[in-house]
Amino acid sequence: MSITGKDVEYVAGLARLALKDDEVDTYTAQLQRILSYVEKLSELNTEGVIPTAYSVSTSTPMREDIRAVSLERDEALKNAPSTARGCFKVPRIIE
Amino acid sequence: MSITNESIHGLSHRLANKEVTSVEATGQFLERIKAVDETVNAYITVADDHAIAQAQEADRRLSSGTNITPLTGVPVSVKDIFCTKEIRTTCGSKMLENFIPPYDATLITKLKAAGAVILGKNNMDEFAMGSSTENSAYSPTLNPWSTAHVPGGSSGGSAASVAADECAASIGTDTGGSIRQPASCCGVVGLKPTYGRVSRFGMIAFASSLDQAGPLTKDVEDAAILLNVMAGHDPADSTSIDAPVPDYTASLKEGVKGLKIGIPKEYFIEGIDPEVDVAVKSAIEVLKEAGAEIVEVSLPHTAYAVSVYYLVATAEASSNLARYDGVKYGMRLDPTGNLTDMYRATREAGFGAEVKRRIMLGTYSLSAGYYDAYYKKASQVRTLISNDFNAAFTKCDVIVTPTAPSPAFKVGERTEDPLTMYLSDIFTISCNLAGIPGISLPCGLSKEGLPIGLQILGRSLDEETVLRAAYAYETATEWHKARPKL
């Protein structure tokens, strides 16, 4: 499969990355080379093979629903770039 | 008396005998860091004040004789991927340049409870993405054996700090070889435990189904000592395994008599450096002479591991790194007052080139129309790779291979060519995909004077046998005693 500059811009948009023009060209070439390499997987017949997401197969661990201490609000906000009235502050979303 | 070249068990002995105090030992390591780290750059942050306070507390424990562990008073370093309360944690990224975690990773809590002194935070490839530590936003780490060469990566700072005697031992993380490959490059021991053996809570995520923390040490016994402290179930990490933790030092010295060692033919291929080939084959002879039985095994899907890894790991990374959005912590750039522009500008400025490349590759392979061909296919081949190991381990107890196809490469040599860089992990990646434990230990020096690593892989949760085989090799040889002239 071949990847174009347009694909790279689309993917960068999905990933919320702003790319400069020269970066689009560089990434297109590099991703193309990597994708050609991984193309090798298509040699294998994997029909009916169950995919592995985690190497350790355990059931979902359950626990009692017990109240426990979490971070204090001030602590949780301490690293935020911008806060207001005990909340994370972001640019206006609704005009 | 200089103690900076001591192992954990060596230093622990001296502390117990009152030959040296923890404050003195910590002072010596801080001096050593001052003397050599301008060259090596193994640390992003040195935590002098915290370290000295921990050393004073350790000395109180040592003099009162209560609550003493083999780590009490021993100065160690940790990769800058572990959240440390009140100590800046950057993960090698500009994105987290000013991030001061409000809590400790479980692993840090355990180290502190054992009485270890944490000297500082080691340099690394940004978000653990890399094989040379050249992707750090805080300048590359250089190899203590030759500053023209890389220390490997992504735990390059950890490996270099151990090799350069800037700590007694270090903790790194391994997603596709990031403990074992730098251990190989720097001539130290590096252990990646079974996936889930050590808690990931508070360890900054790269690829959550592969990431695992482990020790980098001066010898095999130290790796066992550290794993004793690190291993165990953590209610805060639902993927940590709830299985009993053995004393990893107990069976260490039982030898390899009767142990079946598998040699996979797929790991001795064309393209492997001849010096590595010779060193590893003579290491196999050493194990044979020590009483092990050598059997040939096959891991037929080895050639597909790098492809699987770079699809699975990048897919997980693209999801994990979505959290760096300039809202809750880390960098924010807000050029226009528009939310989407804020995300995009923040991520453009905060991430380095390799991180962006992997986010894009992961996003691409997960996106509509490509999911089946890439991510799903890779996850299926991952099953085949696991099956290979299961079959091989019916014929042998451990598998021995080279850790890396070559000794450390030159600084700058592979930075322009991501695919060649990825192939440095060709022998370490399968282990992560299958979730099994693996260790790298020194087994030779090249003509250029660069270390060569031997890799030993074991069955899931069988770190004991891996460590036992490694210890048997180490005691029969002198390679672990070689030190760089820095």
Plain-language structure description:
The complex is a heterodimer of chains A (95) and B (486). With 95 residues, chain A is mainly alpha-helical. Chain A has a domain of 39 residues: Orthogonal Bundle (Histone, subunit A). Chain A is built from 3 helices and 2 strands; from the N terminus they run αααββ. In chain A, a hairpin with a 2-residue loop joins strand 1 and strand 2. The relative contact order of chain A is 0.08. Chain B has an 11-stranded mixed β-sheet with strand order 1-3-2-4-6-5-10-11-9-7-8. In chain B, helix 5 packs parallel to helix 6, helix 9 crosses helix 11 and helix 9 crosses helix 12. Chain B is globular, with a radius of gyration of 21 Å. At the A-B interface, helix 1 and helix 2 of A face helix 9, helix 10, helix 11, helix 12 and helix 13 of B.
> How would you name the CATH homologous superfamily of the domain at 8-258 in chain B?
Amidase signature (AS) domain
Number of strands of chain A: 2
Indicate the CATH topology of the domain at 8-258 in chain B: Amidase signature (AS) enzymes
Can you tell me the overall shape of chain B? globular
| Largest β-sheet summary of chain A | 2 strands, antiparallel
Largest interface: A-B, 51 and 74 residues
- What class do helices, strands and sheet pairing of chain A give? mainly alpha
